[in-house]
Amino acid sequence: MKPRFTPTGVVVVGGGMAGLSAASFLAREGVGVTLLEKAPILGGRAATRSFEGFSFNRGIHAIYTGGAASQVFKELDVTYGYGMPPKETFVLQKGALHPFPADPLGILRTGLLSAGDKAGLIRFVTALSLAKPHAVAHMSVQEWLKRHAQRPQVYRLMAAAARTLVYSSALELVSAQVFVERLQRSLKHPVHYVDGGWQTLVAALRDAAEQAGTRIVSGAHAQNVEHHEGLVRGVRLSDGTLIPASAVIIATKPQDALKLVEGGDHLPLRQVVDGLLPGQLACLDVALSSLPSSRYTVVQDLDHPQFMSVQSLYSHLAPEGGALIHTFKQLDPVHPTDPREDERELEALLDVAQPGWRDVLVRRQYLPRIEAVSTLPTAAQGGFAGRPGPEVPGFANLYMVGDWIGSEDFLVDASMASARQAAQILLRDGSLSRGKVAAGSRS
Ligand SMILES: Cc1cc2nc3c(=O)[nH]c(=O)nc-3n(C[C@H](O)[C@H](O)[C@H](O)COP(=O)(O)OP(=O)(O)OC[C@H]3O[C@@H](n4cnc5c(N)ncnc54)[C@H](O)[C@@H]3O)c2cc1C
């Protein structure tokens, strides 16, 4: 039997990229939407902190264009300024830096690969161009690489690229679908470093949501989703206020979502959340008064799961003459490392690529265990298709969105794809009240 909805709007819990996107999609169709964010500022993991003209994202961030996020930005008329990484990057091997050009001719000229390796790389690129990402979803990145990058040096190069693209060093667990799709895409579509940091995207999404009529409440901690007989009736805030709703979208990380439903005791949701394997990074970002070396600006470490980029050379993230460098180490969820040791390794990477950085240091930000992705799509779970869908089991009108939801894409692309999907399900249902009436008015 079709559920009866109360004549109120939709409440979205969480003001990150997913929550803001879901709110915009609904509000611009005339649905009354209230978005609740517990933090004083919007953005979640996409927030940016400013310090003396430096824009610190929460660790290294880039838009991999050509995916769901790019589509959603277009659909919501969100635009932003950006720069792109250089064509020539470097790899660090046995303490020495070697140029590694991105274009095929340059690669054939590099001294990093023997003639046999170059032939091996051509075979790898051919296999990549023929691969269908969904067909390798049950295979791990490691298995796929072993099959298609048989020469040790080609394997080393591609494994390093894979760790950076899939945000994990657990290549034996992560589905090859993620790597193949990301690498195919990045060869066709540019990577964007966003001017002003990702807060620029958050502000543009907030404007889109508000212009469409969304009521955004920051500093509002949702404590509980109120429901009766499988039907959600609203959201209770930590101060006791009830925000009535005809449907609720939870746009938080999985553990926060779990707490919102029956205080964590909703078994089907607990089973979903317990099965997730988060992808964590150690991120060291340094703001410098000047850049020690303008040569080694993007470096991929072949011997350790590490990467460095001077994003401020290519986008507006630092004041005139200053530089903001991002480094990150891809962690293994199954084999934890010592955060202090991770930090020292990232410092050592900076010592090689940007010697003298300590003398011009203005500020540093170290995020030892930040969750870059709420769940790594694994080979065992069949890649993207193994993630839960947006409908919360046991409820007619409760949905979840985020980077752990839906079978489309990865990272922020998954957050925004699932936001669009949940909004489409709600709009198709047709029982929502339109005309922006009673958009979750407080009672
Ligand atoms: C270091 C790092 C690097 C990354 N690099 C990239 C990259 O290069 N490219 C890319 O595409 N993606 C990248 N990502 C991922 C990207 O940042 C995330 O996918 C995206 O920001 C997630 O958005 P979200 O809205 O799904 O979740 P979140 O950003 O986690 O938002 C959830 C929001 O819910 C709020 N909330 C939680 N509980 C409650 C509650 N009870 N009541 C009210 N509000 C609540 C939180 O405060 C938060 O604002 C990176 C992430 C990290 C951390």
Arrangement of strands in the largest sheet: 8-7-16-17-18-15-19
List the domain count as a whole number. Answer: 3
CATH topology of the largest domain: FAD/NAD(P)-binding domain
Distinct bound molecules: flavin-adenine dinucleotide
Return residue spans where pLDDT drops below 50 for at least 5 consecutive residues: 1-7, 436-443
* CATH C-level name of the largest domain: Alpha Beta
Please estimate the helix content: 25-40%
Descriptive overview:
It is a single chain. The protein has 443 residues and is α/β, with parallel strands linked by helices. It folds into three domains: 8-45 and 200-276 and 384-429, FAD/NAD(P)-binding domain (3-Layer(bba) Sandwich), CATH 3.50.50; 48-84 and 191-197 and 278-373, Protoporphyrinogen oxidase, mitochondrial, domain 2 (Polyamine Oxidase, Chain A, domain 2, Alpha-Beta Complex), CATH 3.90.660; 101-188, protoporphyrinogen ix oxidase, domain 3. The protein has helices at 17-27, 68-75, 104-109, 115-130, 141-148, 152-166, 176-188, 199-211, 254-260, 267-274, 339-353, 411-429, and strands spanning 10-13, 33-37, 48-51, 54-57, 63-64, 82-83, 88-93, 96-101, 191-194, 215-218, 222-228, 231-237, 242-244, 247-250, 279-288, 298-301, 306-309, 323-330, 361-373, 398-400. Strand 3 and strand 4 form a beta hairpin. Helix 1 packs parallel to helix 8 (199-211), helix 2 (68-75) packs across helix 12 (411-429) and helix 5 (141-148) runs antiparallel to helix 6. The radius of gyration is 23 Å and the shape is globular. Mean pLDDT is 94; it is low at 1-7 and 436-443. The structure holds flavin-adenine dinucleotide (FAD).
